[in-house]
Amino acid sequence: MQGDGVGRGMKYSCYVGSLNCFMNQSAQSFLKYFRRMILKDIISFLESRANLSLQESYDNSGLITGNASMEITGAIISLDCTEEVVMEAHRKGCNLVIAHHPIVFSGLKKINGKNYVERTIIAAIKHDIAIYAIHTNLDNVSQGVNRKIAEVLGLQDLKTLEPMTGKLQKISVFVPESYLEKVRLAMFEVGAGEIGQYDHCSWSVSGTGTFRAGEGAQPFTGTIGSDHHEPEHKLELVFPTWKKSEVIAAMKSVHPYEEIAYDIYSIENQWSEIGAGMIGELPEALNTLDFLHLVKTKMKAGVVRYTEPTKEQVKRIAICGGSGSFLLKHAIQSGADVFVTADFKYHQFFDAESRIVIADIGHYESEQYTMQLLNDWLKQKFPTFASHLTEVITNPVYYL
User: Fold this and answer.
1) What's the confidence (pLDDT) of residue 197?
2) What is the pLDDT, as a whole number, of residue 196?
């Protein structure tokens, strides 16, 4: 009987211990799920989707007010950051505004409230509200502004209208045969070797490396003072320029050599996933005017300014959120029937020359769905984070 009691006691102790362990793990998971949200974590996520190096030279994307280490209570997402948007954030207990357009494009010499830019900055600083802008870098990624427009219009088979160049680099590293896969996989893990819709892309060729280790060296193979021949592979991978440090660090973390022979090249290839504008096709051809009515409805445009229709039906559509006149030649060369964008000047409409229909729907209208795009990204990445679409209509243009 005594033995049975001891057995039951041991079982009970094990049960309580397991329950406590489960509760501790659950509590840890709960606390991790509802962890403090630090601004730098939000910035890191957004820039992993649209790196700052992809913004145009005139732009001012990034953190405009605030400190990256501050704790964030919630965010208001807007197309423009105005004083009204900042005050909305303050009323709702949010201390971050994520805007598509930067409130500051050029340097401010004085901040005394004489214009809306200065008043917005003053309000943000007064109420300790961070402002982060994600502008042309978001325009230039394949999953950004233009992808959202294409989704709203129902376009398929999407491609970048004007792919960027000069944003890719290549690493060439010499690796002993036994470490080839380790080094290759380490660089894959940080994003090297991605080309279009393919990843884990690399190239290697075998050869023979030679060296002679001097006094004080600690060679992976071979002996001090003697010439050594080692079977090696030359391994090459491409990567985005902004991942250079990560790729090199990953390679070095697993490479066995004390002194690693590697080269970094800048390459001028077009990058199909990065660039301005987008082109796609409707599931089936539509009458030109029917399509323009569709655009007006789907994009909630007060008016659509368009050039003379050149075809009875259209199917191939070019798009560019915001001011897209600089892409007109690319839209024509791509064989687009219609170019949906904004901010065309009067004389620029003549440049269509009956080869394409220009459909100008307004700047705000062309980019308004960017707010929903950003909100969706944040909800997917940080499910418990409080992000809200602004209730302020920042469009300065009205229509009768």
Assistant:
1) 85
2) 84
